[in-house]
């Protein structure tokens, strides 16, 4: 049995609690949620305790507990910050792969989340802390970095080289064998036909550059997470 702590107390964290409890191939014991102390509003979430992250290792030893970071897309750099802080404490982070996912002969890191109906073709190489939502397709020989967020119904083309901290809105598609640079933001429904520039937003079919965000990164909507 795996003892698991979920970082987060949002709708996404609630969803991952459900999947880990009711739709998982592993035997999971969910011991609690945690958030940064300044955002700790309630003592319980989904009927189990919420703890301050800052001293979580005092209650839950790192050698006996695993983490899943369930932080959404509102502030993409915050997702990376949390992942790095959990790693620094020495916790192992699990991957969640929904039982309906088709995945074979791939290389993945940790804290990756693959939701219902995702297809990952052979020879995909992926880093850490990527979230791939339902019905998305990652084509063969894709190289994907870390801390990316792919919304439902996306297609990432074969042989693409994708960096870190990218956000793909729903139903985005890319052609094969292009470079998708760090912090590329593709608005829902966009079709990327050529390599992107780093820290840039694209929109439309074909996707065109609309703005850049190098200073603050990708921020999409307000939540409990800091600006």
From TrEMBL:
The keyword Acyltransferase applies. Keywords: Acyltransferase, Transferase. InterPro entries: AcTrfase_PglD-like, Trans_hexapeptide_repeat, Trimer_LpxA-like_sf. SUPFAM superfamilies: Trimeric LpxA-like enzymes. One of its GO terms (molecular function) is acyltransferase activity. It comes from the Bacteria. Substrate binds at residue 72. Belongs to the transferase hexapeptide repeat family. This is Sugar O-acyltransferase (Sialic acid O-acetyltransferase NeuD family). It comes from Pseudomonas duriflava.
């Amino acid at each position: 049995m795996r003892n698991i702590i979920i970082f987060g107390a949002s709708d996404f964290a609630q969803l991952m609690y459900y999947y880990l409890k009711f739709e998982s191939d592993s035997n999971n014991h969910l011991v609690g949620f945690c958030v940064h102390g300044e955002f700790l509003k309630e003592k319980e979430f989904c009927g189990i305790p919420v703890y301050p992250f800052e001293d979580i290792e005092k209650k839950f030893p790192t050698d006996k507990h695993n983490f899943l970071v369930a932080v959404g897309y509102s502030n993409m750099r915050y997702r990376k910050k949390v992942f790095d802080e959990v790693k620094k404490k020495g916790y192992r982070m699990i991957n969640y792969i929904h039982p309906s996912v088709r995945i074979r002969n791939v290389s993945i890191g940790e804290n990756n989340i693959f939701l219902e109906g995702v297809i990952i073709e052979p020879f995909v190489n992926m880093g850490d802390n990527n979230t791939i939502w339902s019905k998305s397709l990652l084509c063969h020989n894709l190289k994907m970095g870390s801390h990316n967020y792919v919304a439902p119904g996306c297609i990432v083309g074969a042989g693409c080289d994708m960096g870190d901290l990218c956000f793909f809105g729903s139903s985005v598609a890319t052609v094969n064998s292009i470079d998708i640079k760090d912090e590329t933001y593709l608005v829902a429904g966009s079709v990327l036909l050529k390599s992107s520039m780093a820290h840039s937003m694209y929109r439309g079919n074909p996707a065109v550059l609309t703005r850049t965000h190098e200073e603050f990164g990708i921020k999409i909507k307000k939540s409990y997470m800091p600006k």
